[in-house]
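Re: that chain you flagged

S.,

Sorry for the slow reply, it's been a week of failed gels. I finally had a moment to sit down with the sequence you sent. For the record, here it is as I used it:
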Amino acid sequence: MNRPSRFYIVLFLMLLLWHHGTSAENGYNLWLRYVKIADPALIDNYKDKNRHIVFPAVSDRLKAAKAELELGLKGMLALELNETDKAVNGTLIVGTPTSSKVIAELPFVSEINNLDNEGYIIRSCTVNGKGITVIAAREDIGILYGIYHYLRLMQTNLSLNKLDIKEEPKLQYRVLDHWDNLDGTIERGYAGYTLWDWARLPRYKDPRYIDYARTNASIGINGAVLNNVNANAKSLNTEWLVKASGLADVFRPYGIRIYLTARFSAPKEIGGLPTADPSDPRVRQWWKEKVKEIYQLIPDFGGFLVKANSEGQPGPQDYGRTHADGANMMAEALEPYGGIVFWRAFVYQNERDIDRVINGYNEFKPLDGKFNKNVFVQPKNGAIDFQPREPFHPLFGSMPETPLAIEFQITQENLGHAGHLVYLGALFEETLQSDTYEKGKGSTVSKVLQNYKKTHGISAMAGVPNIGTDINWTGHLFGQANWHAFGRLAWNPDLSSIELSEEWIRMTFSNDKSILKPIQKIMLMSRETAVDYMTPLGLNHIMNYNTHNGPEPWHDDPLWTAFDYHKVTTDSIGVDRTRTGSNAVGQYHEPLASTFNDPKTCPVNLLLWFHRIPWTYKMPSGQYLWYEMVDYYYKGVDGVRQMENIWNTLDGKIDKERFEHVKSLLKLQEDEAVWWRDGCLLFFGQYSKMPIPAKYEQPKHSLEYYKKIPFPYNWDSTLFLKK
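Prediction finished late last night. Pasting the structure tokens below so you have them in one place:
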């Protein structure tokens, strides 16, 4: 397959520049808006540091970095690149020791050469008596990341004086797992259809692919799985691999490798074999030949993501083999090319007599150390399924001999879809900073993930995005903040979600504190608010069975019942996962196991996750459990209304289009929060036999009304009729 010509690279970049200049404030440009700096003093400072540029760009990757620098300086400073080949005062020097003679002769070139493949240095220094700024890296990809960091400093109005920045990613593989189907739909996608125009690939490459790649590179994402974990086997057919190679060509200058979800039964479905048994030599050979074909088309192919023996998906257990047997078969085929297997640990089988929470640990813990060196076991952040709140997955800190890749969900499958403003940076940070106690206090999930790079040479974080064809990419404008937070935390899992919220607001809206502070207040209260009106006190999996939006704690049929997750009766509610119950607490290290085991020490926000509690149980607040639950549900609705009020103070301070977009969705969120509150309290109240206190606004409808509401909420049409 021919690689893209230089002509097409240039054409893409020209289209990029044109599009950026003609876009309205509709969210399309995400956090790469590069609007004119408002502060005259800052403009002078920034111009002084960029009056001359030394930036030889000999590779496609360096050309992409240079085009981004040009775009940023022109947008923020109305400054054209004034290129030179020597250092004078106010010169920005960019490059690697290989691409730039000036960089090769810097006094700290040995430090540059000791950076890892993706690391970079941004430094103010003096060369031959001239004050300059250097962006340097060992490899071209480091230059691209360094350019985005440098532009971010200006976007967030930080000084360019006395810079001394050295950055290397703390996790090696930082991957988006797209759940996109070959028919253009997206499973759990709420922002339109897939970006991938399969019908016209590989010949036509939509310029939007470049914007996608730019955006990911700006936050350090270096991989993308193109297709759904519930995979179609034909994605591995030659015709589809050729199409995928077209995307790989576009993404390559931006350091993004593509991956594919591999259906385990592909040798049977498209390979003509009678079996997919990983012990069968014919099956093993088929995978080796298929992998060879892929690398002929896509030389930098990343590898496979696999969902096996979960929710009806085929896998090695169909043949009496283990997850390790299946993963290792694929890993052996990929290893000669440097490919990776991400083997998901989501192994939910809907077995009613087994506590779902303990499944993943029980299946994978005994396999620790039995996977090939190029295999990641990939658990979700929690043991159930991307709930508004759940404790971290107990596999983290329990598989020292096997590298784990954590999987977060950026798309809000169980958090209101693209209709609810929920800043997930707080959720990501909560999980990453949870202490596993694997090696005593301080063994956070973040440190566990980072440690795999030291012990196994590989480390990773994956996220399921909500990226589609909607003009603003994510459906809800604030969904962009979750994409941004994920990428930045994948680069450095110890970053603060509070600081990242401020960074995103400054780049997306304004550096004006009268705008920044209200928006940040909304973002920082939003996740807890959503938990309050959806699943307070450790409740979980009570959303609508089919859509995963809206309440349905009453769902009960032979296939699936919400009662397995709340166990409500007239005397109690919650799931007993203590040592005398399913013993999910026993999957955690001490002292966590004992902390979770005792309702008096268990965190209140996880109480019903681990314990079955009487309605008359006295909470730390002094009131019964029922009244505590009521308080939380009403607090959640009040929180949304507070978010609305805060947002309304921004009328006239930000552009009308984005203001109205968020305003209308906050109103939808309020309506659906009331739906959650009233539906859940009416349902649980029939078991508690206790009232909703008179001080609160009472539900306007009966429980039967809420049970019959379809999704989307069939709001009373009379509300919208002209009077």
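What I noticed first: The domain at 531-575+612-720 is CATH 3.90.1330.10 (Alpha-d-glucuronidase, C-terminal Domain).

Talk soon,
D.
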